[in-house]
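#data-curation
PF: Archiving a pair of folding outputs for the training set. Convention for this channel: one message per protein, sequence first, structure tokens after, nothing in between. First:
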Amino acid sequence: MADFVIRVGCRSAQGMRANNEDRFVVDPERHLFLVADGMGGQDRGEQASGLAAEIIPKVLQDRLAAHDPADQAMQRALAEANHAIIAAGQSQPLGRRMGTTAVLAVEQGGQIFVTGLGDSRAYLIRGNRVEQLTVDHSVAQALVSSGALTMEEARSSPWQHVLHKFLGCAEMADGADVRPFTPQAGDRLLLASDGLTNHVSEDDLRSTAEQLAAPQALVDQLVNLALERGSRDNVTCVVVAFEQE
């Protein structure tokens, strides 16, 4: 991306949890960024997110080097990580399934491609506009999409944090949607686990981004805000800033 200088901020906070099951990958040279939020408790969640952080970048780079389109390469990388996590979970006790969310961004041909499974999210902050680029794969969100719940009802629904798509899900019928965008000077791309997005609103993203231009300062402020508001989860955030060269 010769037209832009890419600057990145990143942070993962353990918070009030006994351990950190989140993982992130920041590779500015290859323009590849990932946040994974492990599920299953302690070593199970850590193993699942660790496998995602290991497998997805490798498969993605191999497929891009083989000239696969970015969307196909991303879907292949997620599928291989899903199979590996399912296989690793076979050794776990019955009913102790492990898994992880994943939100991923990569550049190809001057565009940024974004995809995700689970409820980790990607946002594009452009000027005073904040746009969520991914869809939460929770049962509550599926009920909203079908018209069975309103967005307000979904926020307090017991199904809000029950996922029907994630890495490690053997019943997943289809993969993730991939969404491209063409970056503009001043854009900030934010990837975050739900430990942050459950406590930080789009208005918070907008106002904080207006105050803080440096991506690391923005990350630190948002993570601190989530922790101050009582997030009991691990809190992970990556911000990619596209600046004029």
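PF: Second:
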Amino acid sequence: MSRLAPRPSLRRKTRSGQALVELALILPVLLVLFTAALDLGRLYYGQITINNAAKEGALEAAQEKTISFDSTRDCDPDTNRVMCPVINEAKDSLITIHHSDVSLTCSPDPCPTTPAIGDTVTVKVTAQFSLISPTLAVFFGGQSFPIAASSTAQIGVAPQPAGAAAPSPTPTPTPTPTPTPSPDPDATPTPTPDPSPTPVCVAPTVSGSIGISPGSGRSSAPGNGGSATLFSMTAPTVDPQTDCTFTYTWSFGDGASASGTTVTHTYAQAGTGSSKEYTVTLVISAGPGATWTGSQTVRVNP
């Protein structure tokens, strides 16, 4: 006795049910991948926004004759001009920047009223970023975390006025000849000492790089269980120059600064970016225009 073939309508119902089950299984995975990709795009756009905001603030500060900045107040075109381009850069974007998220430091500190070549200003912007998907929170340490950017610019130096025209020389009158005295055979001539040359200090020549010990550590950022990390930083060796005095100015990348050949600094927050690093900058100066600038990164884990 031959076996009856299944009806076509029954086969179609079986395929439809199988497709619904497969869709139900794969749809959550597709949603997770979509929200993760959306969060990564938002994070990239947010980082670009605060990078541009920091650059705009540093450029505005470098162009001001007298730097006007107050992190406790909003933008004011008369008394708080540096804050204006920073806040305006983030308008209508995914990132909101408050006046308390912006800091400004100068090298040397405080900001000079009469800047010279080598004087710099740094603007740092920190903003809070929130993820849509909880999937990426595992990799970033939470659903909400800070992102930061900083920018450094040379403070504008006013051009020096052209020197006045040299006066016409006055003719030297012909001297009246003086009788030549008879030489004293017993007199011993007194030697004339050679004048000491005036030292000319040039840009320092260094050997090695900035020494940082330890190279990395844990921060005391709230909620991550770390502890504040103390770093010791030593300037590279400078080749000696006669009668030249060197100054050492440090910027630690978190808004703090110090001076000296060997300094210590405690980072209270984890480093910025995916590498969790701060950029330590050292300026060694022997006078106007005679400077050496070096930098090195230090990793501060949460």
